[in-house]
Each structure stands twice: as structure tokens, then as C-alpha cells.
Automatic annotation (TrEMBL):
It comes from Magnetospirillum gryphiswaldense (strain DSM 6361 / JCM 21280 / NBRC 15271 / MSR-1). This is DNA gyrase subunit A. A type II topoisomerase that negatively supercoils closed circular double-stranded (ds) DNA in an ATP-dependent manner to modulate DNA topology and maintain chromosomes in an underwound state. Negative supercoiling favors strand separation, and DNA replication, transcription, recombination and repair, all of which involve strand separation. Also able to catalyze the interconversion of other topological isomers of dsDNA rings, including catenanes and knotted rings. Type II topoisomerases break and join 2 DNA strands simultaneously in an ATP-dependent manner. InterPro entries: GyrA, GyrA/parC_rep, Gyrase/topoIV_suA_C, Topo_IIA-like_dom_sf, Topo_IIA_A/C_ab, Topo_IIA_A_a_sf, Topo_IIA_dom_A, Type_II_DNA_Topoisomerases. It is an enzyme of class 5 (isomerase). The gene is gyrA. Its EC number is 5.6.2.2.
């Protein structure tokens, strides 16, 4: 057999997969962080932006030169410095040219470079570009050894590691990027304000963050708009993190007679205007924003103009508040000031960013000054040689003429000592250290000797001799200034300050984004007029609100008015009169609580059916609303009120109503339910009340509310209210008034043997329990017949069930003047006064209420409330909370 070679024969180093993956992923992460996604705090640029500007500088695409094809620029960048996709380079270049993305655009584009509507730029073969004038101040002096260079991706050339930016571009234009495990999002600021802060820090290095914030009050977005409040700005500037709430700029105009419109002239930064209009249209169509009649975009080259016409009866401030709440017309900018500082990612405050820039700028000016000093000295050195030559022109010409060749002439020029008394002061100032005049003579260097040999004859004229002297004196002054800058830090800082002020004078513009001191947005409720509303709920889950003023009061015995238009099997199950500011609680069959203010309910006419609650509330599949409860408007009083829950499995519980003050839009768990269990009723209650539970198989139990403890949490299943047989379930819960009496008094009252004040008291406190079965039988029974027992028992008989009357459908208290509505699964609907139903004992079968056909059964029974009110006075209107009997669909004629 052939021997298997060992790894050492192939120079293989064993590596575990875990170690290799860890190292490779860290290398990738650091590459993304340092070389792609995060900007440098010094010039505010990512590598791709830096390479674009450097390539344009090398290609000569200056602001005062003709435009060049974008494809040519992208090709230069990709071929020399950025070995990535051309689309990545072009997209970065496009953003640098967009005035709505950059506060100070760095590229001057010609052609289609995109829009605020999300339109993409034209292909790079169609567009043209050149550097913007402001970009020259980012790359200026790069050829003066101001920054370090490194090899490009293939070592064929070098590229700058940072640009010698003259202004803090990171703050002026902001930045955004997602790295590995970190991200940055820095908003743009006003150039003038940022430079003022830089100057203030130069003047006072110990300036406090608060003093810096006074000079830079907040971001200044290129699209304008408004910033709400200062807390988010303060957090962002002091810690590097914060959330800035932005709003578009709007005003109200009268577009035609009796018709107003909201005009949007500025949209929040980075908001897609076209998508914003689509969202507004969707919300108007879904009735989440009410009062809008028309929507159009009239924006043109002169600016943004979005027209939102409102209906005649709508309030502009209310519609605007809805737009702010539900659309991107108000949005937030999450500030995350992460940048590379010294090659390492760092979360930086406003003051730290400015301080880092000033340190960098000080280094740039120092390196530039050293470079210019060297250049000036080199030129001055040559000029000194020329000055010596002019001063000794006859001797030099003679020496050169006698030399056999240029090399001999150069050596003889360097070997001879030349008189230099006339230029001695300048030579001592500007010549190289270690050289100078010795005993009134000067020795020429090789560079000077070569310059003399290359001297043209026209430089020997008197005028040219004077020019050499003038240039020498001018360079002397420059060298003197350079030395002063390098030897004096205050002088260097003065140069930096002057350059910043010059930038401000050239490019600063007024602030576009205003800052409002209001920390909180105006609540829509504050803009809603307080008005009495009639809220109607139907048996199949439709709801609406109608202004109370719509219903005209009538004399007793009137014909009423046309009621709601409903399906045949539907009917009005609940009506209450309340204010637009009243909160309404909705409890669903799955134990979830929802809350809406009345003004959030759909507005309708008396004839309209309303809107299905499944389209108003985020109900799940199979989830229905069991209870609709209007609550006190002052939510601070809810802590004194209790609410009782009952489930189909016989469990009950009691909670403080204050547990349901804070409910989010997606609802809040009201009660935990077991599998197959449903929440069938929720009722407000107090310790002085009784609870009556009725079951499908004819059982009932009555116990005091105090027997159910107040639960602190909402995620428990409650306690047992009634013990059920396997086939039984609770179909209703009623809250009854608690009346104290002894059994003898009760029995005497029920036999009509009780007289006097005691009989009067019992009569006033008496409640009747109506019970209806599936086969259309029903009866009324005095609540006195339901004795009070302990919670959790099997209960007592509520009705005598037989095959003739069938299981119980409903059992609830009724008054003598009430009416009820019964609906069968065959579509039969009947309405009748409860007085037509005989009063009978608990253990009776009842009488026929609805004569059902074979295989037909009653599926729903409800007590009605009167919408018209049978008032005796023609001018009388509804009282708030009126609970009187309801007009059926179509008025009294039905």
C-alpha cells in the first residue's frame, strides 16, 4: 500500500474550524467598520466618498472646469482606488450631489440625480458631474504633505488616508451607515453655527458642552422642517445618542370659497414625499384620518407644495394633528454619533467631535507650514545664488567663459568665495541653517551654481535684477511668518480661526430647520370640540356615533323618525348618550381590552348602519366584542370603581377599573382564559352589589360582589363563580342591587300579603329577571326569588327546562317599561314590551314569546333602549346617560 503523506510534507498548519471562523469573521467585521461603513471624525467621509473626491481632484474635475460624464469618474475611482461594484460608487456619488440629502453638497451634478419622491438617478452614462466649490476646501493643500498616504488596493498607487478638511464636514453633512454590530446616524448641521462653535473652542479650550450647545442649537436639515422640543437634541449632543422629533412645515390656506387646505411646503429629512402621499391616501381611505376631501402634489422646481384639502365641516387643526400622528409628516431621527477617532469607532458628543476636528486641523496647518517653509527656503536659496551672481556678474561671466565645460564651471563657482555684503541680512534670515556668510563671503551650493549656469541673459537687465531682489524680500517675509506660526501656537490657532471664518463667510446660509420649545405635541383631544353624541351598537357588532342635536325632540305619542338601516337579522342592542371626550372600553371574547375615545368612533347619520368593530379594533380571527362600556371622562376617578368579569366556564374575577386606564392600540390583556373558554360579560360593580350568573342548562347563582377579591394582576384566570356540569356553560352575568330582607318578608311580598312601608320598600327595590330559551319561551321572575348564596356552588333552578322550551339563550334584568328583541337563526325578528311576558316563579317553563318553526331556534335576545325618547315636552332633549327604550329600524311603524 502507498503510505499516506504526513501534513508536514505539504507544509500544512492544522487550524480548528472555530478558530478560523472567529479570525475570519473578526477580520471581515473590522474591514467593514474601518474601511467601509463608518466615517472618520476628521474629514467626515467614508472611504468611498474620500476616494471619489481624490479621483476627481487627480482628474482635474474642478468646479470651474467643464462637466464630465459620471461613468468616467466612476471608472477612475473603481480602477484606481475602490475595487467594488460601480453601482456602490455611483450611488455614493449621487448622494453627494443631492441638495435634499446634503446640507453642503460636495458634487455639482448635471442631469437627473434623483428626487425627494424616491426617484432614482439616471444611469451614469447620462449624467455629468464635477467637484462642487465646497469640496475643494475638503481636499485643498493635499499636495503639501498635510495628510498621510497609503497604498491603494493593488500597490500600484497611493491614496490619502484622510482629507485635510478645512471645515468639520462630519457635522455639516452628517453621515449614516451600518457596520457589523454597530451603526452610525449623524444629522447635518448649519455650517455657520458649527464654525462659530469651532471659533469659540479655539478662543476658550475649556468651553463647556452647554456653551457649545448655545452656538449649535440643533441639527439643520437640508429639507427644512421643524424640530419639536430640545430634550432629544440635548441628549444627542451631550451623550451621542438621542431621538430628534421632526415635522414638516405646514400652513392653512383658503383654496376656494368655504374650503380650506393644509399646505405642506417642507417635509421631514429623509422622508419619501411620494410614499408619504400614498400613506395619507391609504389612511384617509381606511377612515383612520377623517376630514380630508382631496390630496394632490403641486411641487415643482421652485419647491415643495403638497395640498391636502379638508372637508367643509372638518377642523384644519384636528386634521393636521391626525397627519402628524399617523403619517411620516412627523417622524423622528435617531441620532447615533459613532465615528472613527484615531482608527477606532467611538461614540462622540458634539464637543468631542469639534475638539477632534480642531486637533486634526492644527496638525494639518503645522504640516502645511513645515512644507511651505521648506519650499520657500528652497526657492530663497536659489534666489540668494542668483543675487550673488547679479552682484558679481563680471567675475562670474569671466569664470564661466574660461571653463572648459559646464561641470568644471559648476565646480569653480562652488569653490570660489563670493562677496555678499549687499545681501547679508536676507541670507542670514532665509538660508539653510548651518550655511551663511563667512568674513563677508558666500560659498555657492550645487543647486545655486546650477541655477546660475541656467540663468538667461534677460535676467541680467536692471529690471530683472530688481525683481530677483523683490522676490527674495517677499519670500523672506513668508519664511519669517512660517517660523512665527511654527514657534507660536496662538499664531497657529489664529491662522486656523481666520480660515474657518473665511469658510463661514463664503458658504454659510441661514438656518432652514426651526426648533420649537414645545416638548410635547398637541393632543388631538384638545382640538376636538366637546359635543354630545349618541353612540349606537348593533347586535352583530356595528357601531357609530351621531350628534345628539340630530335627533329632534318630540311630544309623547309621536311617530319617531327613521332609524338605522340594518340587515334583517340585526338590531340595535345598545345606545348611550355621552361626550366626544368620553373613553369607551371594549372587552373581547378572548379576554382582551381595547379603549377608544368617542370621537374616534365612526361618525354617521341616524340612518347609517355604522362600521363593523372588526374594522375599528385589531380583533383576531374569531374574536368578537362581548361588552361595550362607556366610562367616566375623568380617568383619575377610575381607581374608585370596580369591574367584574365572567367566563363561559363559570369563572369570575374583579379588578379595579384603573387597571385599564393605559391601553395601547393593540389592546391589553384583561383576563387570562383557559382553552375553549370565552369572556361572556364585563360589568361595572361595587361592594354593595350582587352578581347573578345564569347557565345554558337552566341554573343560576347569586352571590355578593364582596365574595370575589380584587385581583392585582390581569394575567390570572379568576376564581370559581358557579360549579358547572360538563355539558353546561354560563351564558350571562348580571349585576343586581343588593337588598337586605328576611325570608318571611320576602315570601310575604311575593304572595302579595305584605302591606305598608315595608311593601313599598320591597317594590321600589324589586328587579325582574327575564329568561328566554332557544325554542322561544320566556318568563319574568322577581330577583327576590334568587336567594343569596356563597360563591362557587352549583346554584339553583332558573327555569324548568324541558324538550318543549329548550336550553337558555339569555337571562338578564329588565324594567317594566323596557322592550326586548329576539332573533332566530331562521332570520325571524320580533320586538315586544317586556310587560307582555308573564311574571312567573323560578321553576316554571315560561310562555311562548316567539313561535319558532321546526328546527328553528332563538339565537339572540337583547334589551332595547329608546333613541327618540318619548318625551312629554316638545323642547326636551336627551339627558346624558339616557337609557330609555329604543326605536326599531324604520320607526314606530315596525
Amino acid at each position: 500500500m502507498t503510505a499516506i503523506p504526513s501534513p508536514s510534507q505539504f507544509d500544512v498548519t492544522p487550524v480548528t474550524i472555530e478558530e478560523e471562523m472567529r479570525r475570519s469573521y473578526l477580520d471581515y467585521a473590522m474591514s467593514v467598520i474601518v474601511s467601509r461603513a463608518l466615517p472618520d471624525v476628521r474629514d467626515g467621509l467614508k472611504p468611498v466618498h474620500r476616494r471619489i473626491l481624490f479621483a476627481m481632484k487627480e482628474g482635474g474635475y474642478d468646479y470651474n472646469k467643464p462637466f464630465r460624464k459620471s461613468a468616467r469618474i466612476v471608472g477612475d475611482v473603481m480602477g484606481k482606488y475602490h475595487p467594488h461594484g460601480d453601482s456602490a460608487i455611483y450611488d455614493a456619488m449621487v448622494r453627494m450631489a443631492q441638495s435634499f440629502s446634503m446640507r453642503l453638497p460636495l458634487i455639482d451634478g448635471q442631469g437627473n440625480f434623483g428626487s425627494m419622491d424616491g426617484d432614482k438617478a439616471a444611469a451614469m452614462r447620462y449624467t455629468e458631474a464635477r467637484m462642487a466649490r465646497s469640496a475643494h476646501f475638503l481636499i485643498e493643500d493635499i499636495d503639501k504633505d498635510t495628510v498621510d498616504f497609503g497604498p491603494n488596493y493593488d500597490d500600484s498607487s497611493v491614496e490619502p488616508l484622510v482629507l485635510p478638511a478645512r471645515y468639520p464636514n462630519l457635522l455639516v453633512n452628517g453621515a449614516g451607515g451600518i457596520a457589523v454590530g454597530m451603526a452610525t446616524n449623524i444629522p447635518p448641521h448649519n455650517l455657520g453655527e458649527v464654525i462659530d462653535a469651532c471659533c469659540a473652542m479655539i478662543d476658550n479650550p475649556d468651553i463647556t458642552p452647554e456653551e457649545v450647545m448655545e452656538l449649535v442649537p440643533g441639527p439643520d436639515f437640508p429639507t427644512g422642517g421643524t424640530i419639536l422640543g430640545r430634550s432629544g437634541i440635548r441628549a444627542a449632543q451631550l451623550t451621542g445618542r438621542g431621538s430628534v422629533v421632526m415635522r414638516g412645515r405646514c400652513h392653512v390656506e383658503e383654496v376656494r370659497k368655504d374650503r380650506e387646505a393644509i399646505i405642506v411646503t417642507e417635509v421631514p429629512y429623509q422622508v419619501n414625499k411620494a410614499r408619504m402621499l400614498e400613506q395619507i391616501a391609504e389612511l384617509v381611505r381606511d377612515k383612520k384620518i377623517e376630514g380630508v376631501s382631496d390630496l394632490r402634489d403641486e411641487s415643482d422646481r421652485d419647491g415643495v407644495r403638497v395640498v391636502i384639502e379638508i372637508k367643509r365641516d372638518a377642523i384644519a387643526d384636528v386634521v393636521l394633528a391626525q397627519l402628524y400622528k399617523f403619517t411620516p409628516l412627523q417622524t423622528s431621527f435617531g441620532v447615533n454619533s459613532l465615528a472613527l477617532n484615531g482608527g477606532r469607532p467611538q461614540m462622540m458628543t458634539l464637543r468631542e467631535i469639534i475638539a477632534a476636528f480642531l486637533r486634526f486641523r492644527e496638525e494639518v496647518i503645522t504640516r502645511r507650514t513645515i512644507f511651505e517653509l521648506g519650499k520657500a527656503r528652497d526657492r530663497a536659496h536659489v534666489l540668494v545664488g542668483l543675487s550673488i551672481a547679479v552682484a558679481n556678474i563680471d567675475d562670474m561671466i569671466k569664470l564661466i567663459r574660461e571653463a572648459s565645460d559646464p561641470a568644471v564651471a559648476r565646480e569653480q563657482l562652488m569653490a570660489r568665495k563670493w562677496p555678499a555684503l549687499d545681501v547679508e541680512p536676507l541670507i542670514r534670515l532665509i538660508d539653510e541653517p548651518g550655511r551663511g556668510i563667512v568674513d563677508g563671503t558666500y560659498s555657492l551650493s550645487e543647486v545655486q551654481a546650477k541655477a546660475i549656469l541656467d540663468l538667461r541673459l534677460h535676467r541680467l537687465t536692471g529690471l530683472e535684477r530688481d525683481k530677483i531682489g523683490d522676490e527674495l524680500r517677499e519670500i523672506g517675509e513668508q519664511i519669517k511668518e512660517f517660523l512665527e506660526i511654527l514657534s507660536s501656537r496662538p499664531k497657529l490657532l489664529e491662522v486656523m480661526r481666520n480660515e474657518l471664518v473665511d469658510m463661514r463667510n463664503q458658504f454659510a446660509t441661514p438656518r432652514r430647520t426651526t426648533i420649537e420649545d414645545s416638548e410635547f405635541e398637541a393632543d388631538i383631544e384638545d382640538l376636538i370640540a366637546r359635543e354630545d353624541m349618541v353612540v349606537t351598537v348593533t347586535n352583530t357588532g356595528y357601531i357609530k356615533r351621531v350628534p345628539l342635536s340630530t335627533y329632534r325632540a318630540q311630544k309623547r305619542g309621536g311617530k319617531g323618525r327613521s332609524g338605522m338601516s340594518m340587515k334583517d337579522e340585526d338590531f340595535l342592542s345598545q345606545v348611550f348618550v355621552t361626550s366626544t371626550h368620553t373613553p369607551v372600553l371594549f372587552f373581547s371574547s378572548t379576554g382582551i381590552a381595547y379603549k377608544l375615545k368617542v370621537y374616534r368612533l365612526p361618525l354617521g347619520t341616524p340612518q347609517a348602519r355604522g362600521k363593523a368593530m372588526v374594522n375599528i379594533l385589531p380583533l383576531g380571527e374569531g374574536e368578537t366584542i362581548s361588552t361595550v362600556m362607556p366610562m367616566p371622562e375623568d380617568e383619575s376617578t377610575w381607581g374608585d370603581l370596580h369591574v367584574a368579569f365572567a367566563t363561559s366556564k363559570g369563572d369570575v374575577r374583579r379588578n379595579l377599573l384603573s387597571d385599564f386606564v393605559d391601553i395601547r392600540a393593540n389592546g391589553k390583556i384583561a383576563m387570562k382564559l383557559n382553552d375553549g373558554e370565552q369572556l361572556i360579560a364585563v360589568q361595572p360593580c361595587s361592594d354593595s352589589d350582587d352578581i347573578l350568573l345564569a347557565t345554558r342548562l337552566g341554573k343560576a347563582i347569586r352571590f355578593q360582589v364582596g365574595d370575589v377579591r380584587v385581583f392585582k394582576g390581569r394575567d390570572s384566570t379568576g376564581v370559581r363563580g358557579i360549579r358547572l356540569d360538563d355539558a353546561d356553560q354560563v351564558i350571562s352575568m348580571s349585576v343586581l342591587r343588593h337588598v337586605e330582607f328576611d325570608m318571611e318578608t320576602r315570601d310575604a311580598y311575593l304572595r302579595n300579603d305584605l302591606t305598608g312601608p315595608e311593601a313599598e320598600r320591597m317594590s321600589e327595590s324589586e328587579q325582574m329577571i327575564l329568561t328566554v330559551t332557544e325554542n322561544g319561551y320566556g318568563k319574568r321572575t322577581s330577583a327576590y326569588e334568587y336567594r343569596i348564596t356563597g360563591r362557587g356552588g352549583q346554584g339553583i333552578a332558573n327555569i324548568d327546562l324541558t324538550e318543549k322550551n329548550g336550553p337558555v339563550v339569555a337571562s338578564f334584568p329588565v324594567g317594566h317599561d323596557d322592550e326586548i328583541m329576539l332573533v332566530s337563526d331562521g332570520g325571524t325578528l320580533i320586538r315586544m314590551p317586556v310587560d307582555d311576558i308573564r311574571i312567573a316563579g323560578r321553576k316554571t317553563q315560561g310562555v311562548i314569546v316567539l313561535r319558532t318553526a321546526e328546527n328553528e331556534r332563538v339565537v339572540s335576545t337583547a334589551r332595547l333602549c329608546d333613541l327618540n325618547g318619548s318625551n312629554e315636552e316638545s323642547e326636551e332633549e336627551f339627558d346624558e346617560g339616557d337609557d330609555t327604550a329604543a326605536t326599531p329600524p324604520g320607526g314606530d311603524d315596525e
